[in-house]
Amino acid sequence: VSTQSTWGVFNRANILFFTPKMRIQSFRLNNRRGVRSLHTRKYTGYNLPPAKDLRNSPVEVATAQEAVAQFVKSGDSIYVQMGCATPTQLLQGLADNNDLKNIKMYNMSMEGPAPHLAPNCIDRIRSYNLFIGANSRESVNKGQSDFVPVFFSEVPLLIRSKKIPLDVAFVQVSPPDIHGWCSLGVSVENAVAAVETASRVIALVNPQMPRTHGDGVIHVNHMAAVVEVDEPIHNLHYKAGNENDDKIGEYVASLIPDGATIQMGIGSIPNAVLSKLHNHKDLGIHTEMFSDGVIPLIEKGVVNNSRKTEFIHKTVATFLMGSKKLYDFVHDNPSVAMLDVAYVNSPLNILRQPAVHAINSAIEVDLTGQVCADSIGTRMFSGIGGQMDFMRGAALSPGGKPILALPSITNKGESRIVPTLKEGAGVVTTRAHVHYVVTEYGIATLQGKSIRERAYALAKIAHPSHRDALYASIRKRFGPCSSFPSH
Questions:
Q1: Is pTM beyond 0.70 here?
Q2: 34-87 tens-digit pLDDT
Q3: Which of 206, 255, 289, 335 sits at 20 to 30 Å (Cα–Cα) from 2?
Q4: Alpha-carbon span 369 to 456, nearest angstrom
Q5: In whole angstroms, what is the distance from residue 253 CA to residue 283 CA?
Q6: Which residues partner with 444 through β-bridges?
Q7: The pLDDT of residue 448
Q8: What would the pLDDT profile of 395-437 be if each residue is shown by its tens digit?
Q9: What is the pLDDT of residue 49?
């Protein structure tokens, strides 16, 4: 065995030589194969990346700047791991390299600074946002970065089919176990497809990245270069919700029966919903992501995933965002399965779970039930994401409900329920896909209703200060009619 690298290599007996700095712990990751395809996962096996010759150890470099200089070339296409796993040091290394030109960078929402969007990088690095985060919103709306509308579930397909060809993947991983397998930690999402297909993988190896079970495993010798870091990954802390969030939480919780499978995001409204579920029984979680709010429900046994049809007794997600408490909870926790988003967000897989209740939000909803969730007029705000994946999957799940929950007004007092969407606003979820809309004033049930009936149902849960204007808009649009519902 060669010992020239401080990382060392694996021989056929899987002997690992490593430096004390790595602080490698001898726990094993369940990486048994048990998957026939992304659409036929009938039991709790995990999908390993394709086998490669793993006898060549990665180059260990001291800094992200060195890694970029050695392994990124002008004209390369790069995928960057998303969310709280964002490898910010590699982004900084990319931004610092003035010799690189014509770089295409594909990314979802990323946390932390965005050095690649600095003015001196505009002519060298073009970011293609598959979902827009707060740190890239201004750049997209100035035309300095691009937005790619796509369902979250379909991004891995674009990568694997080479419609998004990748030369490099930037990721942040846990240290390797005794067999050399690292974990993608809190963000598996599209990163699995990226590390499978990219010619070169550059990784930050961070002992503060939790080791999660599931699809997010990558062998250390699969990487071209590694940079050792030891610092907290990005985390999120949300303010407590207000009285209106609490009311919305109560209404949404009233729609959820015992034994349901839940999908929800992060923020004050999802946390309010979760806080109202403590008297429920046998809930399951199959969700794009989750945060700290689910931990008390799991610890109390309210969420036990016992009635799920796939990944029974496991909480399923594709990425996580939250506090260190969350990261400690999922670390080496076999009851949490972090899976490829192509599986998690596929409506074909969602619909097979019992009574899926998908809880999503919106920027505005028009009186016919059209949902804008990605833009404010022509100004891009976020993206398509997984909303339609789960809204459709929940609608097709036996006993499922696709639910939109939002405050009745914005922080500026403008109604979120509007006669028509703003000019240029995008329709993320169509009027045919929306079954329930919830505000602090109640629940509007839309499925099976005519456009006129929907309009009245939505006006009734609008903020009182805007209802008269909405009713006037309805009369103007549909004309006076004695059969109109009373209000």
A1: yes
A2: 333 444 454 334 555 555 666 677 888 899 999 999 999 999 999 999 999 999
A3: 206
A4: 11
A5: 12
A6: 437
A7: 95
A8: 999 999 999 999 999 999 999 999 999 999 999 999 999 999 9
A9: 59
User: What gap in Å lies between CA 164 and CA 161, rounded to an integer?
Assistant: 7
Contact by Cβ (8 Å): 221, 353:
no
> Which residue is catalytic, options 288, 299, 364, 453?
288
Mark whether 288 is an active-site residue: yes
- Burial call 196-222: b when 16+ CB within 10 Å, e when fewer: bbbebbbbbbbbebbbbbbbbbbbbbb
Note the pLDDT of residue 80. Answer: 98
- For residues 335 and 315, give the distance between their C-alpha atoms in angstroms, rounded to a whole number: 6
Q: Measure the CA dihedral 404/405/409/415, to 10°.
A: 20
In this structure, what token pair is assigned to residue 239? Answer: 């303010």
| SS3 annotation, the chain | CCCCCCCCCCCCCCCCCCCHHHCCCCCCCCCCECCCCCCCCCCCCECCCCCCCCCCCCEEECCHHHHHHHHCCCCCEEEECCECCCCHHHHHHHHHCCCCCCEEEEECCECCCCHHHCHHHCCCEEEEECCCCCCCHHHHHCCCCEECCCEHHHHHHHHHCCCCCCCEEEEEECCCCCCCEEECCCECCCHHHHHHHCCEEEEEECCCCCCCEECCEEEHHHCCEEEECCCCCCCCCCCCCCHHHHHHHHHHHHHCCCCCEEECCCCHHHHHHHHCCCCCCCEEEECCEECHHHHHHHHHCCECCCCCCCCCCCEEECEECCCHHHHHHHCCCCCEEECCHHHHCCHHHHCCCCCEEEEECCCEEECCCCEECCEECCEECCCCECHHHHHHHHHHCCCCEEEEECCCECCCCCECEECCCCCCCCCCECCCCCCEEEECCEEEECCCCCHHHHHHHHHHCCCHHHHHHHHHHHHHHHCCCCCCCCC
Angle, vertex CA 75, rays to CA 71 and CA 76, nearest 5: 45
CA dist 322 and 302 (Å) reads 20
Q: Which amino acid is at 301?
A: G
Task: Choose among 230, 323, 288, 320: nearest CA to 21.
Answer: 230
Residue 92 CB coordination number (10 Å): 20
Name the phi and psi angles at 416, rounded to 5. -90, -15
Yes or no: say if 117 and 135 are a contact pair by the CB < 8 Å rule: yes
pLDDT reading at 483 higher than 70: no
Report the half-sphere exposure of 318 (CA within 13 A, side-chain side): 26
How far apart (Å, rounded) are the C-alpha atoms in residues 1 and 380?
53
Query: Cβ of 423: how many Cβ atoms within 10 Å?
Result: 7
Please give the structure tokens belonging to residue 339. Answer: 């899976």
The Cα 202–Cα 195 span in angstroms is: 9
Residue 20: how many CB atoms within 10 A of its CB?
Answer: 6
